[in-house]
Specification:
Largest sheet: 3 strands, antiparallel
Distance between the termini: 26 Å
CATH architecture of the domain at 3-33 and 71-132: Beta Complex
Structural class: alpha+beta
Number of strands: 8
Shape: globular
Strand content: 25-35%
CATH superfamily of the domain at 3-33 and 71-132: SET domain
Helix content: 10-25%
Number of helices: 2
Radius of gyration: 15 Å
CATH class of the domain at 3-33 and 71-132: Mainly Beta
Length: 140
């Protein structure tokens, strides 16, 4: 897959992930890679404010992309997050295959489009809670 990282179309999102070639519906766009850790280790990183790119598979297997900026999947944003742009919607989902996570297209995606993936309602509820209580420190 030909993917590039550049400024996102979403305000305050920082960087975004874009495709340079068309992607068919149901195609694996990219594997979500990072350091493999357990939930206990992740909780330590949260306390140190070294978090924000976790994909949870199980208590024993979490993919933490925070310390691995070379892996592009972490740059996929959620079009249904805190800042929205009219006309932009999620075109992908996260899917687990065994002990791996992939971003998978839920429709045909044209060359040049930004990849948007659903972070889940639970993720955004947590972010809103943290903002309300002054814990949220967005990473630009």
């Amino acid at each position: 897959m030909s993917l590039i990282v550049k400024k996102s179309q979403l305000p305050n999102a920082g960087k975004g992930l874009y495709t340079t070639k068309p992607i068919k519906k149901g195609e694996k766009v990219i594997e979500y890679k990072g350091e493999i850790i357990n939930w206990k280790e992740y909780e330590k990183r949260v306390a140190e404010n070294k978090d924000g790119y976790l994909f949870y598979i199980s208590n024993k297997r979490c993919i933490d992309a925070y310390p691995t900026p070379q892996y592009k999947a972490r740059y996929a944003n959620d079009a249904a997050g805190l800042s929205r742009v009219k006309g932009l919607s999620n075109n992908c989902n996260y899917e687990i295959f065994g002990d791996q996570c992939f971003i998978v297209s839920k429709r045909d995606i044209k060359a040049g489009e930004e990849i948007f993936v659903n972070y889940t309602k639970e993720y955004w509820d947590c972010v809103r809670f943290n903002i309300k209580h002054g814990y949220y420190n967005p990473k630009k």
